């Protein structure tokens, strides 16, 4: 079996070598960020929770944009990426600890798996998810 060796250019990037150049689409980075953030316990969902954001999400779905792009905005250069991320957290989770864990995991996944240097990960906690109260049993009909 052939052994894989990492080739790097003079500037240290594994994405641009003497053998060719690799570019990674924004959508690929956005999906990676979404998956990495969702791996962290305490994250309920990625995206925003307000009515305006729901309308924006519906518009994006109708226009064919991936649902993984909702709540994730990336700026991808040749070697670097800047990430803006909106998350909905479970109620009761300590937000500073949660966002630190998300940031670490996103940076690790993007740098290790995609070979990009993460310049910043800005996280906006756009909502809280509360455990649903148990729904009351439907009223019993008194007449048939």
SSE topology sketch:
Layout (H helix, E strand, L loop, with lengths): L15 E2 L2 E2 L4 H13 L4 E4 L4 H12 L9 E5 L3 E11 L4 H20 L2 E13 L15
Helix pairs in contact: 1-3
What is the domain tally?
1
Estimated radius of gyration:
20 Å
CATH topology: Alpha-Beta Plaits
Shape: elongated
| Residue share in helix | 25-40%
Question: Spans of 5+ residues with little confidence (pLDDT < 50)?
Answer: none
Largest sheet: 4 strands, mixed
Order of SSEs, N→C? EEHEHEEHE
CATH class: Alpha Beta
Question: What is the SS-derived class?
Answer: alpha+beta
Could you tell me how far the N terminus lies from the C terminus, measured between alpha carbons in angstroms? 74 Å
Q: What proportion strand?
A: 25-35%
Question: CATH homologous superfamily - what is it?
Answer: Cation efflux protein, cytoplasmic domain
Tally of DSSP β-strands: 6
- CATH architecture call: 2-Layer Sandwich
The average pLDDT is 84
Describe this structure in words.
The longest helix is centred in the last third of the chain and has 20 residues, at 95-114. The protein is an alpha+beta fold and 144 residues long. It has one domain (23-129): Alpha-Beta Plaits. It starts with 15 loop residues before the first strand and ends in a 15-residue tail after the last strand. It has three helices and six strands, in the order E-E-H-E-H-E-E-H-E. The model has no long low-confidence stretch (mean pLDDT 84). Strands 3, 4, 5 and 6 form a four-stranded mixed beta sheet that branches. The radius of gyration is 20 Å and the shape is elongated.
């Amino acid at each position: 079996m052939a052994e894989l060796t990492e080739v790097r250019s003079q500037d240290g990037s594994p994405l641009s070598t003497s053998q060719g150049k690799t570019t990674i689409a924004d959508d690929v980075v956005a999906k990676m960020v979404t998956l990495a953030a969702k791996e962290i316990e305490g994250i309920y969902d990625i995206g925003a929770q307000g009515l305006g954001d729901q309308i924006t999400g519906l518009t994006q779905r109708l226009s064919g944009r991936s649902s993984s792009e909702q709540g994730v905005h990336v700026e991808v250069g040749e070697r670097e990426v800047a990430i803006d991320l909106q998350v909905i957290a479970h109620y009761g989770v300590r937000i500073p600890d949660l966002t630190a864990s998300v940031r670490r995991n996103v940076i690790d996944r993007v740098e290790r798996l995609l070979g990009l240097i993460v310049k910043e990960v800005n996280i906006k906690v756009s909502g809280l998810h509360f455990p649903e109260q148990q729904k009351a049993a439907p009223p019993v009909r008194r007449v048939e």
